[in-house]
Each structure stands twice: as C-alpha cells, then as structure tokens.
From TrEMBL:
Keyword Signal applies: yes
Cross-referenced PROSITE patterns: PROKAR_LIPOPROTEIN
Signal peptide (UniProt feature, chain positions): 1-23
Coiled-coil residue spans: none
Keywords for this protein: Signal
Identification of the protein by name: Beta-lactamase family protein
Record-annotated Beta-lactamase-related domain positions: 34-343
Pfam families hit by this protein: Beta-lactamase (PF00144)
UniProt lineage: Bacteria, Pseudomonadati, Myxococcota, Myxococcia, Myxococcales
Keyword Transmembrane helix: no
Source species of the chain: Myxococcus llanfairpwllgwyngyllgogerychwyrndrobwllllantysiliogogogochensis
Length: 375
C-alpha cells in the first residue's frame, strides 16, 4: 500500500473540493449539471451536494440549496448528510479488514461468532449477510410506527427472535436486508473488541482521509456542518430528520460529506485499506444456485451497463436520499447527496456519469429497482 501517494492524492482532492489557493476546479459539463439539479437550487429548498471523480481526481464539485431550511444554512461540499444505505460499503469494508487479518472467515456461521444470534438462523454465514442472501427478516417489520424509542443495532437481535423462520433458505435467493448489516456491525464489535463507531473511525475513516465522517450516536458524537433532513408538504418543506430506526448504525448510520466520499473513492482505488484481490470480493456479484447473478457484492450493487462494469448504491432514510455510481474500469465516480425525502438522485447520478462517459442519457433501471425491499 502506497500511503504517501494516497496522502498526496488526497491533498489534491481536498484542494479541488474546498478551494485551496491557486486551485481552479475543472468545470467541464458544469452548465448541463447545474440544469439537472435545478430542483435542488434556491433559497427555500433543501439541497444537494455533487462530486464527480475521474482518474482519481475531482473534476466537478457542486452544492445546491440549503443544508438546513430552518436556519437558511447553505449546502456546501463540506455539508454532512446521513448516508443511509451508502453506509453499507463501510460496514462491508470493516468485515473485510477483519477477514484480511485472519480474525474472521466469510464462511463462518454467524451463530458461532455472535452471542445471542437466534439459533434458528444457524446456517446463516457471514457472506450471506454481506450479499443479502441470508433470508433473515427485516427488523423494521417488528417496529411499530407508533414506537418513539429509537432502535439500536443490538436491539435487532431481539427483534429477529420474534420469528422462527427465514424468507428463504440461506444462500438460495437475494432479498435486500437492513437486518443483515445491523448484525454485521455487531460482529465487528464482537470480533474487534471495540465499538462499531470507533472501529470505523480508527480503521476506515482516518486511514482513508475522511476527516469528519462519523457513525453518529446522539449524545455521544457530533456531526460537523450537519445537513438536516426535510420532506415536501403542501405548505412547503418541513423538517423530517429522524425516525425510530435512524439510530441503527450498521445499515445506515454514517454521516459524511462530499469531501469525505471523494477521499473514500481515492482510498478504494489506491487499495489503501485492503489489497486489490480482497477489494475485488466486494465488487463481485453473488452467484445463486441456479447460476443467476444476484447483482450484489459486499456493500455494493454490481451489474453491467452498456458493456461496462457498474458499481452503485442508493440510500433512503428519514429526510435523506442519496446515490453513488462508479465505473471502475473507466475510473469514473459520481456521488449525489440530498437532504430531502423523495427524488431520484440515482437518476441524476447516472445522467451526470453519462456526460463524462459520452453515452446517451437513456432511461435504464438501476439494479436495486428489481431487488425486493431495497432501500
């Protein structure tokens, strides 16, 4: 791993994003991009942050609208959004780091690793959780809408004990599972002997140059330059920042900025955390027993788009909707973070990517749109 080279690249990335003296960002396609994000611009609208990376460099950085409508705080590249399910790529990386160190095996039965994991799930393996092939029930199904106390990752084990069956035999099919990634965060804590939030900070965020990213715990940590969630109502945009499942970390609890995610993208491509062979595991879709592709790796959707390998993920949670699309062979990544419920930032991310790829912006589905219960 070439950490000095990574550091030099990160300095360049941060300068482009934050405006270091003497640095002029590349504004290719800026007018077309600004037109795409018109709905996020304006003095009364919750906003969006956009980053485009090509060949390991930021070629466009934009922020639109407001990070907080109530205080009229403008969105910037440093605004921190709740990532929702974009968090899953960090949870998956935490597991890969433990595997890389020989502390865990992808084939390990979860019941042998995690005390309190329901015994009826005895055949669920670590890789089943990562690939959404575990068949375990969605913990949200057991949380009533009237519940005001927030669910934590540890509570998911108790919620899973309210049933004694899976949606399907582990490994036989794909069903998107937030429960799986909450359980993975508990495995990280159990095997590493440290908190999940602390592990992400020490082993992923800091080495990757994600200076201010945080797995947020109310009353424990703070979010710098925090963007607050909103929803659209007849009377306008209203605050909608937390739900009763917003405190679960492993499936969606990370806050990060466009600056942070640009650094993360550089770290992935430079193999600053794990080597290329290990990283390839995350970017390889699961093969189902019938030979079909499950179109999910470890924390990433994986499919083919017009002959190109496409990595992607979306994230939807209370007041936030986000997307990332990455073409590893073309060294192109587009990140879109928004602090409003609804919208389709994955469509915007794809349209922006198409500008740099030079392909027609034709409507085409993202892989999550055909996966049960994806969000």
């Amino acid at each position: 791993m070439n950490r000095p080279a990574l550091g030099a690249v990160l300095v360049s990335v941060l300068c482009v994003l934050t405006g270091c003296a003497g640095t002029a960002p590349n504004v290719r396609h800026a007018p077309e991009v600004d037109a795409l994000f018109a709905d996020y611009s304006g003095p009364e609208r919750p906003g969006a942050s956009l980053v485009v990376l090509r060949e390991g460099k930021v070629v466009l950085s934009r922020a639109y609208g407001l990070a907080d409508v109530g205080t009229r705080t403008k969105a910037t590249p440093e605004s921190h959004y709740r990532l929702a399910s974009l968090t899953k790529q960090f949870t998956a990386m935490a597991i890969l780091l433990l595997v890389d160190e020989g502390k865990l095996r992808l084939e390990d039965r979860v019941v042998d690793v995690l005390p309190g994991f329901p015994s009826y799930l005895g055949e669920v393996r670590i890789h089943h959780l990562l690939q959404h092939t575990s068949g375990i029930w969605d913990y949200e199904a057991f949380v009533p809408a009237t519940q005001t106390e927030q669910v934590k990752d540890r509570d998911v084990l108790q919620l899973l004990s309210r049933t004694d069956r899976t949606y399907f035999p582990p490994g036989s099919a794909v069903r998107y599972s937030n429960s799986a990634y909450a359980v993975l965060s508990l495995i990280v804590e159990q095997v590493s002997g440290t908190s999940f939030a602390g592990f992400l900070r020490a082993r992923i965020f800091t080495p990757s140059g994600m200076a201010s990213a945080v797995a947020h715990q109310e009353g424990v940590s703070t979010v710098s330059q925090r963007a607050y969630g909103h929803a659209s109502r007849e009377e306008g945009f209203v605050p909608r920042d937390q739900s009763n499942t917003s405190a679960v970390l492993g499936d969606g609890g990370v806050y990060a900025s466009g600056v942070d995610l640009a650094a993360w993208d550089v770290a992935l491509d430079s193999h600053a955390l794990v080597d290329a062979k290990t990283q390839a595991l995350a970017w390889t879709p699961v093969k189902l027993p019938d030979g079909a592709s499950g179109r999910y790796g470890f924390g990433w959707f994986v499919d083919e788009d017009q002959g190109r390998t496409r990595l992607s993920h979306h994230g939807e949670t209370c007041g936030f909707t986000n997307a990332i699309v990455k073409y590893p062979d073309q060294r192109l990544t587009v990140i879109v973070l928004t602090n409003r419920a609804g919208g389709a930032p994955w469509t915007l991310a794809q349209q922006v990517a198409d500008l740099w790829l030079g392909t027609a912006a034709t409507p085409r589905p993202w892989p999550f749109e055909s996966m049960a219960n994806a969000h």
